[in-house]
Amino acid sequence: MASLGTVVPLQMHFDEALPLRSGASLRDYHLVYETYGTLNADRSNAVLVCHALNASHHVAGVHADDPKSEGWWNNLIGPGKPLDTDRFFVVCVNNPGSCFGSTGPMHDNPDTGRPYGADFPVVTVEDWVDAQARLLERLGIRRLAAVLGGSLGGMQALSWTLQYPDRMRHAVVVASAPNLSAQNIAFNEVARRAIVTDPDFHGGHFYAHGVLPKRGLRVARMIGHITYLSDDSMEAKFGRELRAAELAYSTQDIEFQIESYLRYQGDKFSEYFDANTYLLITRALDYFDPARAFGGDLSRALARAQAGFLVVSFTTDWRFSPLRSREIVKALVDNRRDVSYAEIDAPHGHDAFLLDDPRYHGVVRAYFERIAQEVGA
């Protein structure tokens, strides 16, 4: 399969304020995005890809200034790949509140001329979908062939079917859930507390102090990373392997390889991710719950959806377990919607949605082949 090669990020500015679910609004903002493939004459072959927590608009290809900057879903998207850019025009938007280019806490607040920091308004999945819809309208795309997302991106795909049911044909929801469990909210809260209690956090206004709350970010990432892996995958990769030949009998030194791995992941994350963004995005995860307005009845909530669905889960994903995907499927079946479901037996945990599993990719390829036939792509 061919590679997309070099891709260039694009930026779109918006003067009109974006109303947010919190009652606040975001004005004078910009969104960074990337596109791949060619929009056909009737603009019917566009696919929106929604990113997850620590990802961005850079979903495929590489950037010219960094040949190692391969897109986070490059194994799935490109010429001849399951989402084939020879047939589809793919768009991925960096959500507001992110730290990868779109307006977020690191940017200047137009009201003060200083970085937003902790004053950046709280954003929700629904707000992100509204922002994406505005950008697509500017691009002249009135109806999407599909919206695709994994994890938090899958929540956005699901929300698209409820907020803009007449502007999309299909939703592909991978390793996701209709809301977070209490356990997931608990993990997010522990990670947030690690950040806000870091002495360098300064109430979220650490930019003005010339410091970064790296200690808190490291711990937050370590907590998160544990939830992305299955017990089997950690055992197979690390087991109880020691870092050195002998035990150091220390409570503070690194003894096991799994400890070394987690510290490495935490160190790397703290160098490029913004602490305020982490707080915002995990809160958006917590808040997402389309059934809440219907007394917790997901079937009633999804009655508004018109799209066809592909829902994919992974057997060892305990953060977004297959049970949660089956909840979505049942609610769609209750509404007699067109839904396909695949439960992939994979050992990798939640991270499986990012990996090159041939069964998973085969399911996605077949579904997009069906969509291509519908839209003449």
From TrEMBL:
Pathway assigned to this chain's UniProt record: Amino-acid biosynthesis; L-methionine biosynthesis via de novo pathway; O-succinyl-L-homoserine from L-homoserine: step 1/1
The EC number(s) attached to this protein equal: 2.3.1.46
Known SUPFAM superfamilies for this protein?
alpha/beta-Hydrolases (SSF53474)
User: What region holds the AB hydrolase-1 domain?
Assistant: 45-355
Tell where it localizes: Cytoplasm
One GO cellular component from the entry? cytoplasm
Q: Enzyme class, one word?
A: transferase
Q: How does it assemble?
A: Homodimer.
Q: Which family does it belong to?
A: Belongs to the AB hydrolase superfamily. MetX family.
Annotated protein name in UniProt: Homoserine O-succinyltransferase
> Which organism was this protein described from?
Sphaerotilus hippei
Upper lineage: Bacteria, Pseudomonadati, Pseudomonadota, Betaproteobacteria, Burkholderiales
